[in-house]
Task: structure prediction
Amino acid sequence: MPAYDNEGATISMEDVRDPDDSTLRISTIEDELASRRNRMFKTQQSTVASRRQQAVCVRRAHKKYGTTTNPNVILDGLNMTVPKGTIYGLLGASGCGKTTLLSCIVGRRRLNSGEIWVLGGRPGGPGSGVPGPRIGYMPQETALFGEFSIRETMIYFGWIAGMTTKEVDERIDFLVTLLQLPNPTRQVKNLSGGQQRRVSLAAALLHDPELLILDEPTVGVDPVLRQSIWDHLVEITKGGRTTVIITTHYIDETKQANIIGLMRGGRFLAEESPMELIRRYNGESLEDVFLKLSVLQNRGKRRRSSILADVVERVEVPAIPDPRVDSEDPEIGEISGEFGDNVSMTSKGRGIVAEPAVVEALPPEENHSRGILERIKPMKMHHMQALVWKNFWSLFRNFGLLAFIVGLPISQMFLFCLAIGHYPVGLPIAVVNHEMGANNTNVLCQYDKDDCPQDPDTWEWNLTRFSCRYLDFLSKRQSNLIAYSSESVAMAEAEHGKARVVLVFPANFSTSLQERLRDPRHADVYTVMSSDIQAHMDDTDKQVEWMLNRDLLLSFMEATEHLSEICNLPTRLLSTPVYIHKPIFGLEVPNFTDFAGPGVILTIIFFLATALTSGSMLAERNEGILERSLVSGITGTEILFAHVLVQMLVMMVQTATVLVIGFLVFGLTLRGPVVWVVILTLINGLCGMTFGFVVSCLCDKERTATYLALGSFLPMMLLCGIIWPIEGMHIILQYISYVLPLTKSTESLRSMLQRGWSITMPTVYSGFISTTVWIVVYLTLSILLIKFKKG
Ligand SMILES: Nc1ncnc2c1ncn2[C@@H]1O[C@H](COP(=O)(O)OP(=O)(O)OP(=O)(O)O)[C@@H](O)[C@H]1O
Result:
């Protein structure tokens, strides 16, 4: 059986067989293997050392977008070497992948395979300083806060880089002169496009970083200023401490660069000094050289490797089998981690086991076998200071947003409390009172209030005009009673929508009623029928029908009770099988506002938090500010915490507003513990915020986020028992309802407010538990989505 060395080559038996001894000398094989391993380890160490000496070193970089079936290959085995203290001009046609390459270098995107070394470390590796203040990054988009002044912008980026405000102010003076910036007090949104780009460049130069990565910094800049920017770049690279990578479409301006990388088809056509390029390809200008090389590449006359062989490959050494990279399979290996926080550190891979020596050769911080807790970077005070300050000012500078944040809960609560849930009054009721004769037009007819039996025991009395007594009580509940002379006329009016119910009193209503009261068990059919009030109901609105039925019934109870009382009758006049007593919980007059209030309060707070969170996260991301902040060293965790801090304050104001309007202004029932009510409302807002994180991770555009938020708002309103009892839903929907985030919390709040229950009741504490579980679920989802989307 052949033995295998590290590189997979067999060691021949002849190599180790002693001619005088036919026995296999195992120790010789082991020695040979150890020696080869040692040689390889030394080579790897020297490779690592060589790559660490460069400012940036990219090897065999593969990057593609799209799907496996329809891939869009952007980087195709690209090699790049940027020595320290140089200006590196990255040139190439629009769409060739310059920005993609730069975002891989700054750690914002992952390669599908290949290696990147930046300032001696791997982007994202803890301790590498990349992303972080060692880099100054100017993205292609301006990536600034429109509401901030130039000075405030600099303070934000300066604080992130660990500068003091004084240091920032001093640096601003220099940058204003260098880049001919307008007055630093001017708001960014009021600057011209070119001025904004210069502010963006100033933000990258501000903290004097070791590596400047500038994506088209001279767009929209006049030639004189462009020259002074280049002069400055030349000046700062002279000492060897600062390195600059710059992309531009003005090929000629890169004459001042030390090295130019001409990018095309996912690789470099050439990587050389401008003079050498012009000389070697006999071009009149760099543009000329680029054209020539492109034509050559198109014709396939030159193999790519031979073009670069003497340039790039001079620093190329045998590949390090990176434990995290399977360079053969671009789908599997990925190198860069996220930003050193807990958001995304592990690389994809097949779990390739590296040789121990290779693992040792890598910097210790790059050993990705570290546990999750070790990967969590501690939050930095100056980062949090910058983020919280920025979040506050972004909020308070944006008047429209502020009006929305404060105005929406106020207006929603006012509208809800004024518009929803109150008892409908003034419903038109048609009355045909045959007891008062056909010509009676006075619906509230006169009756003798003291009409009592002579002897209550014998019921010997001539009860009169009980219909008038009844209508008197009914009018206290529903005042819009209209008298009609005949049933047919009243019915015709009801059919035209002019009455919600038609009440008909028979001619001898009172005498029949008296008969029925005296001996209910022996009353004949005629007596029963002529003592009934006929009610013809408009059934189109079930809520109204239900309420009118209740009014009709209660008015009758009140009229008979009143008669019992004044006549000192021993029992209630009419006994109904169900008698409505004072409620155990809730109000005597049914009030839908109290029922729906808890759900509405939670919904307002939840979805406002969702909208604000997703809106601000997406705006930051789409304007490139998020990317820029991340490259400056801010971590995802810090961004989340800073957002939560500011948002919590906003939510406290919103919660206070909503509760004050609901309970103090409109008198919604509040029987339970106020502290727990406030806490539940706040954690519900926190839950909405985390849902906002999920939305912003799922959607790329604000518009899509709006659709998603709306698309979840409506089902939640319908299914969480906010506007209708869950017990009245379809059984399957009931199960769905119980796992939604607002259901249990609504029940919990309702129980605290109306029943006065405390936190010890299961219905109440289950609302807190459910909301907390949802917060954890949403946070986990956000983190997974960030991980999934990166790359
Ligand atoms: N997130 C993405 N998803 C899919 N394709 C992308 C993505 N980002 C960039 N691309 C595509 O990758 C290619 C390279 O884009 P990139 O922005 O890197 O080019 P560029 O050289 O910087 O162009 P320009 O000079 O115009 O800025 C383009 O075809 C672009 O459409």
